[in-house]
Amino acid sequence: MTEVLAAMGLAERAVREAMARVLPEDLSGRDALVRPSEHADFQSNVGLALAKEAGRPPRDLAEALRSELAAGPFAADVSGPGFLNLRLADRLLWAQVTARLAAPRLGVGLPLAGSRTVIDYSAPNIAKEMHVGHLRTTVIGDSLVRVLSFLGGEVVRQNHLGDWGTQFGMLIQYLDEHPEAGWHGRAEQGDAAAQVALLDTLYRAARKEFERDQDFVERARGRVVALQSGDEATTGAWRELVAVSTAAFQQLYDRLGVLLTEADSAGESTYNHLLDEVAEELLHSGAAVESDGALCVFFEDVTGPDGAPVPLIVRKKDGGYGYAATDLATLRHRVRELRADRILYVVDARQSLHFKMVFATARRAGWLPAGVEAVHVPFGTVMGPGGTPFKTREGGTVRLAELLDAAVAAAHRAVADKPHELSEAELDDVARAAGIGAVKYADLSTSRTKNYVFDIDQMVSLQGNTGVYLQYAHARLRTLLGKAQAVDPAPEVDPGLPLEPAERALILQLEGFGQVLREVADEAEPHRLAGYLFALAKALTEFYGSCPVLKADTPARRANRLALCRLTADTLAQGLDLLGLRAPERM
Ligand code: ARG
């Protein structure tokens, strides 16, 4: 493995080595408490933290560590009540740049090697169009898949499609009774997306009829029974609904550039044959009890407004299973069959009580052993322009495909307005990368649990914390590197050159890449990576401001700066890829 230990790791190692020489054995293995610092590259508070136990004044302890460190590649001093400030030698920072450029994967290690994570994300519902509510789960889940895999983890993608339930009996009945609605014999009418749009409309019509016509309710119930008991014609109709919807979802996934394929689909119906067994096991283990004819799980800490316990209903009074039973069977399957040691559920924050109860039930039943972690990864809501939940003028949900169209059009205008040398075809391609990227980035850069307002103009802005801004920063670097290539094809880094402050700041920022990816993986928070990339682009702007590259005053300085530009471009491109954004070479 060719991991390049990051600057902060080097600082930690140096402080630990000094601790081993200065402190008694029982204290020398403690955390070195190294953090990035404004006063130096890094600061350690270990002098303060361990002074008491070491039986010496903090400044004194810090001073002893400092004098040990003086022999190494860090310049150290002590400030305040006993802070240890560390500054890495210029030579060593240049060496880091060289090593990262030469290493595969920018020298980032594989800390997740040997782990196996199931990620549950996207999960739209069959016979309905994907709407803005599915955007967050889809892009956050996709980024987590990418980051965990990049860090060496094994990742199993699971698309828990909403493909089962009494609503399908109702819809199939309605479609049969209304040949004039155009569902049957629609074969030549447009693509999957258009067909799902039609289904979405018919579904709503079916609901209306269901609400108003008692006879239809009866016939729909009959269809539900037919579907559940495997009636040939009914399951055939259902399979068709699933196929059309899945094809339409796939079109959107491809357009969004997310990694999901049909092979990742394991819809709710996948678990139907396990539900009886799951209920049985829950009853036997005592995790669930019969209550009022239903099979329920009760929790001490889950009560309604009246203080009465609110159960998780595994099986309804009428014998039917719902969302909860399916999720229990799914979880059991993910641990037993898929051998997950971590399961991430990227699902709307409004479902947190559901997951709390499902996880607690699974623990009780012994399906979630101690070494396995099940985590609900909740996210906030996408709001409309007024800061209220996003709805169409008619009060309906907003179709995702339409939003993407609008974003690509806006990005096209924004890119075309800037001076550029792109052909028409290149411009179209860049607009797609920028428009789709803008939507994804706006979502991913928002602190995961916060709501955000969907504002296309702001999303495609070339200024500020946007995907387009980062893509431009990357493309500008590639253009610069292309020009340099012509003059100086193989620049080599001279580690003996002193660092300018802006160069130093940029290198230190680049050195933080692996650390931020580990944080994204641990906390399941891609917005940390977005924030990192934005800070990197800002450090790059500072660098441009004070350090001419092509016009550097000596060839050696130009070579060093070109290396720095190349590492920055590669890091931006890699980071954007891990967010699921494209990084065009030219814009
Ligand atoms: N289909 C569900 C919805 O649209 C989301 C499913 C999430 N995953 C799960 N295992 N429950 O709300």
Automatic annotation (TrEMBL):
Domain Arginyl tRNA synthetase N-terminal, by residue range, is 9-88
Q: Which family does it belong to?
A: Belongs to the class-I aminoacyl-tRNA synthetase family.
Q: Identify the residues that the record assigns to the DALR anticodon binding domain, covering every copy.
A: 470-587
- In Pfam terms, one family for this protein is Arg_tRNA_synt_N
Q: Which SMART domains match?
A: Arg_tRNA_synt_N, DALR_1
Subcellular location(s) of the protein:
Cytoplasm
Enzyme Commission number(s) from the entry = 6.1.1.19
Q: Which GO terms describe its biological process?
A: arginyl-tRNA aminoacylation
Q: Which GO terms describe its cellular component?
A: cytoplasm
- Keyword line: Aminoacyl-tRNA synthetase, ATP-binding, Cytoplasm, Ligase, Nucleotide-binding, Protein biosynthesis
| Reactions this protein catalyses | tRNA(Arg) + L-arginine + ATP = L-arginyl-tRNA(Arg) + AMP + diphosphate
Stored PROSITE patterns: AA_TRNA_LIGASE_I
Give an example GO molecular function. ATP binding
Using the UniProt record, give the first listed, main subcellular location: cytoplasm
Assembly, in brief, is:
Monomer.
Q: What is this protein called?
A: Arginine--tRNA ligase
Q: Where is this motif: 'HIGH' region?
A: 124-134
Q: Which CDD domains match?
A: Anticodon_Ia_Arg, ArgRS_core
Which top EC class applies here? Answer: ligase
Q: What is the lineage of its organism?
A: Bacteria, Bacillati, Actinomycetota, Actinomycetes, Kitasatosporales
